[in-house]
Amino acid sequence: MKKFLILLTVVFFCCTVNAQQDDSTTVGRKKVAVVLSGGGAKGMAHIGVLKVLEKAGIPVDIITGTSMGSIIGGLYSIGYNASALDSMVRVQDWSYVITDKEDLRHQSLSDRKKQNTYAFTTGLTIGKKDMNAGGFIKGKNLAELFQQLCTGYTDSLDFTLDLLIPFACVATNIIDNSEVVFHSGRLPQAMRASMAIPAAFSPVRISDMVLVDGGLKNNYPADIAREMGADIIIGVTVQGAPKVADDISNTMSILSQIIDVNCKNKYDENLAITDLHLQVDTKGYGSASFSQAAIDTLIRRGEELAMRHWDDIIALKQRIGIDETFRPTIYHPLRPQVMTEKHRVTSYTFENMTPQDEKFLRQKFHLNNTDSIDASLEQELTTSMRVDLFYQTAECRLMPDGNDMRVILLAGNRKTAQFHAGFRYDTEEYAAVQLGLDIPLKTNMPINTDITLRLGKRLMAKGELTAHPRSFTRPTISYAFHRNDVDIYMEGERSYNILYNQFQGKLVPINFDLKHFNLQFGLRWDFMHYRNKLGSETSKQVTLKNEHFLSYRAQLNYNSEDNWYFPTHGARFNAEYAYVTNDLAKLSVRDENGNRIGKKTGMSEVSADWRMSFPLGSRLTLQPMLFGRMLFGTIIPPVLGNAIGGDWFGHYIEQQMPFAGIGNIEYVGHHYVAAQLQAQQRIGNSNYVLLRVAGAQQADHLKEIIDHRTLLGVQAAYYYNTMFGPIGATLGYSNRTKEPYFYLNIGYEF
């Protein structure tokens, strides 16, 4: 009896572990395959169908897919049920995932600022072939996401034997135009190859194959499911109605039609062997419809379509060989926790990296003292490898080592340079272009050269050299040339125009650059070469002579805001102190003709701005802000005086402070303090309405600051936040200008 109980216990354990397989081997039960087509974002509808199949108790013994169908199917095969998939796709930031942007939330403030300045960034590798080229998007963020979601399944596997549900997906080898079926390999790589839309995403290279989207050869791989032993096939497709001549009117529609026509390969034959075909209506949505509203609608449409076929699904159970009450016992673990769970680490291995780079990563992330890893740390490691160490690609693989994980940090070719491009237009200076080039030097200590060129009404050329001796210190030396063409207004009327060149050199030996915090101490040299001044009679009171300044500077920046332009929570604080001289000690005194007649104590500059964001619900945010700039000293050089106007700090000239209702630059007193309250209302996903009121006091002498008239301003703005920067318009009014102003902005601010 005792032996019988032991045997019964062992049998019960085996049945529990292999419950899915036991369901498929029930006497008389047929094997069921689910086949999911490609379709980009439209493939989100697959999740809705899977929800209903689970609700109906349909067992899934085999799953195949192409493109988005391979992603949904691949994740389903390793334990993400329909509810888990629903949660996973909704929490993703798809505007980040389907681009090559870096996740700089955990990087330095300077890196985050750069990302919110340039619309386009790409790595350049000169002298070596870039094996990740071939598409507008290299897909590194998608590959990284797949790597994280497939934790525990990232090694080379047999997709039939090693996954919870046997799985296969399809790619196209463009070398010989052949169909490639993945029954084994690295699951994240197989999914990435299957969805590599030509020209949009770079192909995946495996051995001598160059793989792109499998939809070009087999967009609905029901035949693969049949070859894997499926008796019953349930298929889901998301393709829209065929295009007619009137639908093809531009380049994108032509390209889309070429892809759609090629995706018809084997389509009719595969439909013919399908037992239940569910064609989801995706009208109004395209392959790139990754907004939250689109995802919600597409999943709902898939679910609603499957529910309309409920009777057909239930009737199918009889053909499978199970009754209506049958429910497959699915012991898959729900897997969304892979994005937050920690894995114990047995060791870190560094591949294709120099000893100096390994040391840098170990120091920055304290890896010698870190005994666990999660998805957040994975992403921080790969981002640092690309941003700090300039590797073209970076991968963090978690390899099972007993119950723990062995971490492999794998680097690709080192980039020769990183190229940035930004474009903007506004109604003040019209079009402007800014180009950047980051070049790493081949030294033991990471050193980066940053070259920037700005073309427009304000011309700028800058070279900067930054060293990374430790994880957070970045000593910097830079030299810049500015050609400024500035219109100066007085109470709304254009008073004069100044055209001058500014040469500026900086030495910042202390530069602590952290996630939310930047502290700098350094020395700066400026030379002002005035080329022209045109204006009214009152402007002649301002005498400008070529001059240079030497200043000691301390600057503190803090920024924990969740969005650079439209934050909903967090805070921003900037403060700076500068002691300005001509000779490191004093400032020159000039007579009314601009001639030097003596020296006085240097000028002290104290400036600060502080903003907080308070969310009131999910869409409305209140943002109070305090800011000001105080100038102390016997001599205040006119070129360094306080200036207000516009929407941003330091946009046209360095000391510029924004003020609601004033669009152009106006000089104010040497002591200036202001308060502003902004209400930010989000409409939809990317539309914002901003209402702003501001008040300020200003005077040339601090003791008189409350005696002057209070400056008041209001403005309303609408912005649409795009991947190329905010696009919007502002209408404002102030009691200083006493007239409305209109401002149009397109692109990131620089």
Helix and strand arrangement:
Layout (H helix, E strand, L loop, with lengths): L1 H16 L1 H6 L7 E5 L8 H12 L5 E5 L1 H10 L4 H10 L2 H4 L11 H7 L4 E5 L10 E3 L2 H10 L7 E2 L8 E7 L4 E5 L1 E2 L1 H8 L4 E3 L2 E3 L2 E5 L1 H4 L3 H6 L4 E6 L13 H12 L4 H6 L3 E4 L12 H17 L1 H11 L22 E9 L3 H10 L7 E2 L1 H13 L6 E8 L2 E8 L5 E10 L3 E12 L5 E9 L3 E9 L8 E15 L2 E21 L3 E19 L11 E13 L10 E12 L4 E5 L5 E6 L1 E14 L3 E13 L10 E2 L11 E2 L7 E3 L3 E13 L3 E13 L11 E12 L2 E10 L6 E6 L4
Parallel strand pairs: 1-2, 1-12, 2-6, 4-9, 12-13, 14-17, 22-33, 31-32
Antiparallel strand pairs: 3-18, 5-8, 6-7, 6-11, 10-11, 14-15, 16-17, 18-19, 18-38, 19-20, 20-21, 21-22, 22-23, 23-24, 24-25, 25-26, 26-29, 27-28, 29-30, 30-34, 31-33, 34-35, 35-36, 36-37, 37-38
How is this structure best described in words?
The chain has 750 residues and is α+β, with helices and mostly antiparallel strands. 22% of the residues lie in helices and 40% in strands. It contains 17 helices and 38 strands. The strands form six sheets. The chain has a 16-stranded antiparallel beta barrel with strand order 18-19-20-21-22-23-24-25-26-29-30-34-35-36-37-38. A hairpin with a 5-residue loop joins strand 27 and strand 28. The longest helix has 17 residues, at 292-308. The termini are far apart.
